[in-house]
Amino acid sequence: MSNEATLHSQQEVMHGAHDHHDHEHHHEDSFISKYVFSMDHKMIAKQFLITGIVWAIIGAFFSVLFRLQLGFPDATFPWLESILGHWAKGGRISAEAYYALVTMHGTILVFFVLTAGLSGTFSNLLIPLQVGARDMASPFMNCLSYWFFFLASLVMMASLFVQTGPASGGWTMYPPLSALGDASIGSKIGVDLWLTSMALFVVSQLLGGLNYISTLLNMRTKGMAMTKMPLTIWSFFFTAVLGVLSFPVLLSGFILLLMDRHAGTSFYLSDIFIAGKALANEGGSAILYQHLFWFLGHPEVYIIILPAMGMVSEVLAVSSRKPIFGYLAMIGSLFAICILAFLVWAHHMFVTGLNPFLGAFFVLLTLLIAVPSAIKVFNWITTIWKGNINFTPASLFSIGFVSTFISGGLTGIWLGNSSIDIHLHDTMFVIAHFHIVMGVSAFFGMFAGIYHWFPKMYGRFMNSTIGYIHFWVTMIGAYLIFWPMHYEGMAGMPRRYYDVSGWASFKQFGGLNEFITIVVILVFAVQLLFVFNFFYSIFKGRKMTTQNPWNATTLEWTTPIHAGHGNWPGEIPEVYRWAYDYSKDGRDFIPQTEPIGPNESAH
Amino acid sequence: MDIMTLEQRKKIHPHKYSLWIAMGSITMMFIGFTSAYIVKRSQANWLAFELPHIFWLSTAVILTSSLTIHLALKQFKERNMQRYKQLITLTAILGVVFAVCQWIGFSQMKNMGLPLNGPVSASFIYVIVGVHMLHVLGGVTALLIMFGRAYRTRVRTYSPVPIEVAATYWHFVDVLWIYLLIFLSIAR
Questions:
Q1: Is residue A91 exposed (0-12), middle (13-18) or buried (19+ Cβ within 10 Å)?
Q2: What is the pLDDT of residues A77-108, one digit of tens each?
Q3: Residue A251: which residues within 8 A CB-CB, separation 6 or more?
Q4: I need a labelling partner for A72 at 20 to 30 A (CA). Which of A375, A437, A571, A592 fits?
Q5: B132, HSE (Cβ side, Cα atoms, 13 Å)
Q6: Band of the pLDDT at A30, cuts 50, 70, 90?
Q7: pTM of the full structure
Q8: Per the CB < 8 Å rule, is A210 touching B131?
Q9: How far is CA B84 from its chain centroid?
């Protein structure tokens, strides 16, 4: 507390000194250097977030479109023809357009929103602020990271508008469909643009990841031992490690795929007939691509979920005014998940003819992930147990995260068994599983983060009433959308199919599919309400009047409300204690910057 | 930015740290390639052949260049800027010679009846060696930038960090090549 007061009073004094001191590199920023090619990690975080939001709207809108087809396969919507043109002749989405929409929905949400938009935003915002650093290890590389992401976005966006349409072979881009331009209309230039965009995306992620790791390992403020870091930082650390180690392997896979497309090589191709004509390619293996893809693909789901876990841990502790339960166990389980992430990729390939003996090992390793996951869930519940919970939108979304992570995680145990997977693979059950455990949960973590750190980003609060409406409709809607899909999947209804009404056994789900589609439209509308709340609050939200609105212990709340580049006007504060001293010794919270008193024991 | 970072509390220079992580990342990329190679090799229709002999010459070239960049770093620290400029120029030239050798290797393979779109075992060599070559050329670009900096008269650089980073990277692509050569010679 005293520290905060000191900082306040110093602010004026330090401001002059600051300008003088930073003289050489911190002149008054022009519009371009402040808002466009900014090297301030806080601005780059906002750039990632807003680009992510734009992508999320597009990606979610695509899901509304293809849900219309799934829910109402016989109906026509003339307005569709006016936005999609010949892709929806007569108001009905064509099969090609449907596959393109599904593929782009997956690509956009997995990579552009939940990877770049999530860890790009919050790693950038929180790592320097919470470890006590002026900026990233290399602000220039950080800026480059965003602009590579922007370029990747432009290329992907362009692919939506080419004549033959974007890539449409599924977001996993499996060969041979993706390797041969003649294989389908969605395998032509769309795939080349997709691969180009993803290569740029990988570069962006690597530049970002390098920075995150070297910043948080190297540039922590005095006293900030690794074991004093908030769990957010730990989760960003493991996320970045996963990304740095697995994205390059994906790039290898993409390079080989590009060679197959354009240099006539046969890495993935063998014995292929197109329109009755045999191709010259011989000796390749399509499964090879799947190995390379899923070696990234599986860590990728943890790249998505770990940042959400970290932010949820932080928000739950802050909003229940209790120290996080099992801090070291939380770190240990993050570490275990990080290791296991690299050892389970073949569980995506149980039915590709994988040796069943090998499959048994992957089953075992996959089921092992349940252990660290259960530890985390237990710790979240015990953290809020008997807590004095402030039900802010952020804390509601965090609690919602725990709920969806449990219900989505349990179905993972089913799918992780290679024998049950024979029945369930490629059905709506898989869709239900990963949307709940990865899609909805990661979004909840992201929403929790946005509501919680919005004041730090913009100096204003988001509207809570709209926040509550957003939470409850999304929470109930998400379950209404994905829960029924489990039943469809167990009955064998396949994913990715354009129209299943032709099968007697799936016809029974006609009404259910209509219901799901209607809920999707409602939930989508509420997300637009959130977007409105977000942008409205940037300009018109309730102003922040204190530095530390949530009474949190961590360092980011010791910076001024509108922190300049460099974050702290004076010296970077020193850290004396861990990040979770809540309700300790009769005090509501003790900031990390307060020295441990003579009669006090460290946690 | 330097002033800002200097006041940070840090153990290793952040750029060096980032470089080490980047090298880990590049290593993973080549692990991806070489493990794909191993998987493919264990399947049917694998054609084994001998690597072009010029790859041994290119090995000697890149080993020499490692030595020259090491000496360049030493000269920089002793502020013998003339020698330093000569040595990084020599290193960059050796880098280009290395790339040319690899290119000649490619054309030799083509003449042996092993074009890029031929047997998979040959395609792998083109891709792996080609991607490695790009990494070497990336190093050459870095050296050209250093070269430009060394000739700047208005601003003088005394920090050895950029040349240290470049030298570490250079040794890394060297070691990577040795690994690839041994790997490709043994796992044929």
A1: middle
A2: 999 999 999 999 999 999 999 999 999 999 99
A3: A199, A202, B29, B32
A4: A437
A5: 32
A6: confident
A7: 0.91
A8: no
A9: 20
